[in-house]
Amino acid sequence: MTRAALDRAAREAGVAGSAEALWSALERGADPRPVEVDPPAHRDRRTDEPPPGRRSRAAEVAVYTGGVIALLAMTVFAGSGWAAYGPGVGLAIVTGYLLVFVLLAELLRRRQPQPAGVVAAVAVATVPLVVYAAHAASGLLDLPPYADYDAFDDWGTSAWVVMEVSAVVAAAGAWLRHRASFVLAPGTAAVSWLVLDLGDATDSDLGRQVAAWLLAAGLFAGALLLDRRRMRREGFWPHLGALLAAGLAVLLSLEDAGSSGTPAAVAYLVLGAAAIAAGVWLDRRVHLAVGGLYLVGGLSYFAFDVFGDSLLFAPALALIGLSVVAGGILLARGRRRQHTG
User: How many domains does the chain contain in total?
Assistant: First the structure.
């Protein structure tokens, strides 16, 4: 290899300015092997993301399935059996639950970060239960005789707001400690209930609608921010929350307007189409899944109540579905051109 040959090759390749650097590297005896530009995937992996592989994926599914069961146990199915022992003993019992989850998450944090994050999420979900028990034991919480932890919709929102704020703070602290995306599941739920309860506190339909729309917009903005910071696993939960909040906002708006039937079906068709378009644009499967459910809900009304006996309805519906598929393909191609351009 001569300098003249290198200059000629660089000019033909359109990188004439690189000839000097290439010649200097050759003179220094640089390693001709290709340089690794992008770091291996495992270097940027989140602490709760396992290495690729069939077995690791199966283990991940098992861990998260168990985590969901535990979350349901400490929230939806928590009940009030612990309170049968009296306020003080009941508080000690639920505090013991919380301490066990926190200590277990700490023990797993270094060697098993993914299960540790799931256990930390369960601890976050237990925090409102402890706050409720503490209020009940201290007498600070003025509850009606029928009230218990799993019937919060029937009693004062102000007390529930305190528990929701505590869950949000606990979720933030747990995420800073474990950097586990699953911790944001109870955190997102707590934020959602908090905003909706603040809307209910206005005691007006408009306040509930505004709260639901603000919740959807805020969660979506937070999800986009997480995506931009390359925290897509964390962004999954606010994306899901935003989609569900948007569906609730549409429902509340329709109820206030007294609309049902065709207007409601059209509204959910529009919402579903928008969610699917956003899913393709953002490369988010959760948008495609939830948007598809909204589309199915809206189309089901037309299929059974409006055009059920029409011969052309089925092929027209199939044509709409294929049009959605075609739109998704076009959007995906546009994204690829942007990335390669």
Answer: 3
